[in-house]
Amino acid sequence: MTPGPARDAMGHARRRRVSPVAILGSLACLAGCVLAARVTRDEWLAADLVQAVADRSATVRDATLEAYGDRSPAGLPIRGAAPLAQLALNGARSGASPGLRVINAARANRLIRHLAQTRPDWDATLLLVTQRELLVHGAATPTALAAFEASYRVRPFHNRAAIWRIAFTRLYWRDLDPATRRAGIAEAVWQTRYDDGQRSAIERLLGDTPAGVAYQLRMAAIGHGAG
């Protein structure tokens, strides 16, 4: 027979044994905590990058690009890649030195390539492709026009990018398909009705051009004649 103390020790060991289900549950809980922490970190980073774009400060832009611009795009939260690419494009256009502009152009191209592979139908990706083409070629290429036209199919009204899209529509009016021309004017009208304080700025932007005439005709048609 097993001596009393030894038998008691074996009983305690059996009671201390943790079931496989409990172990798996603990591991799942740990994995969930790690994932939640990563998601929170990625959300904070994406929000910071969006804020850096909205800030419009060259100092903030350059500091942000210095901190994150050389990261692998695959290592960035997908919602952070687009604002970082926008910052890089902005830096490529107006960096403090030719060398820094070249570095930022390479950063932008790398990020936009990643977005084009992973999120080709995002409005942000399409507008970034349009801007990259303008930066590289100095004018709208067929690739830029196709991406710009697609941006309206994906997102007809875009509060943050509206003025930029309206300006592009005016400048490349004759190169755009009729549906995109109508969409650009609809966005100009929507932007005016959304904030009538912008009407004068939009009228000045469109001027006495075919886009400007189309805008005024559309405004008159809905009962908002020349102001």
Keywords:
227 residues, 11 helices, globular, mainly alpha
Word description of this protein:
This protein is 76% helix and 0% strand. The chain is mainly α.
Bin the helical content.
over 70%
The total of helices stands at 11
Largest sheet: none
- Overall residue-averaged pLDDT value: 86
What's the count of strands? 0
Residue share in β-strands: under 5%
Q: Secondary-structure element sequence?
A: HHHHHHHHHHH
Low-confidence parts: 33-37
Terminal-residue CA separation: 105 Å
Radius of gyration: 27 Å
The rough form would be described as globular
Secondary structural class: mainly alpha
Compact overview of the structure:
It contains 11 helices and no strands. The protein is an all-alpha fold.
Write the layout of secondary structure elements.
Layout: H1 4-16, H2 20-55, H3 58-68, H4 78-94, H5 98-118, H6 123-137, H7 142-154, H8 162-171, H9 178-194, H10 199-206, H11 210-221
